[in-house]
């Protein structure tokens, strides 16, 4: 995969940036699972833009669009378009959506660091709250 993006402030496509991000993550020695997770989440976002017939330019993405994407994810059911698991009626968990937001934040922070964009549009983006799971403890009798 030969991907190169100059640091000039010209219009870049989201697809080009995702490919370059993957190259940089590999070069930094991130684990294959982390790279795969980032790539899958970013492809999901790119597919969202395509399904809405929105431009693929990285410069057209703003905080409002990202918030709309979060709302979209919160309404999605599990395993839509999954190659092996049939779709379910259960909605994506807040934890899953939280992971997508973390991916977007990491990606846009990287875009700023690389000089591809000037302003981090995820700076004020808040992920959905994830409910705390209560872990039951053993009683004295159970010990």
TrEMBL record:
Keywords: DNA-binding. Residues 8-112 form the Core-binding (CB) domain. Signal peptide: none annotated. One of its GO terms (molecular function) is DNA binding. This is Core-binding (CB) domain-containing protein. It comes from marine sediment metagenome.
């Amino acid at each position: 995969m030969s991907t190169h993006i100059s640091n000039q402030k010209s219009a870049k496509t989201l697809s080009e940036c995702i490919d370059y991000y993957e190259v940089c993550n590999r070069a930094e020695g991130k684990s294959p699972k982390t790279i795969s997770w980032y790539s899958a989440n970013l492809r999901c976002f790119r597919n969202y833009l395509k399904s809405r017939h929105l431009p693929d330019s990285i410069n057209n993405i703003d905080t409002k669009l990202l918030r709309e994407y979060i709302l979209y994810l919160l309404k999605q059911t599990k395993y839509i378009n999954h190659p092996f698991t049939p779709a379910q009626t259960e909605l994506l968990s807040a934890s899953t959506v939280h992971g997508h937001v973390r991916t977007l934040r990491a990606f846009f922070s990287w875009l700023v660091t690389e000089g591809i964009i000037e302003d981090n549009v995820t700076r004020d983006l808040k992920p959905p709250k994830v409910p705390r799971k209560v872990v039951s403890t053993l009683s004295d009798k159970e010990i």
